[in-house]
Request: fold
Amino acid sequence: MIRQVQRLGYVGNCNFLLNQADADYVLFAFHDDILLPDCVQRLADVLDARPEVVMSYCDMLVTAVDGTEEHWAFTALEGLTDPLQRGMTMLQRTNGWWVPNRGMFRLAEARNGRHSAQHHRGPQDPWRG
Reply:
């Protein structure tokens, strides 16, 4: 358990948590997500079996406040190997782009990629604190 005493905003808080992590694989479990009992193991199994894969994610059952349910599958990147094409595909999505956010990813690979996230305060390098 980590007690955060300072408001960092969504991106800042995610970056703070990633900087605290000491694991091969990480995922964000949001307050309203209900995972099936074997979900984490199944995501890790994919990463274990396929070293070239950086992130593993699954379909979602989205339940609205009125109780209606929708099955969301993210298939937009299937078969795409070119990084530019994959990035453009993600940028063009208007709905469901966040489904992979519920996935598990290789922390070291993300850190080696020196990814940065931005919010209203400007660029933030999540791997350098």
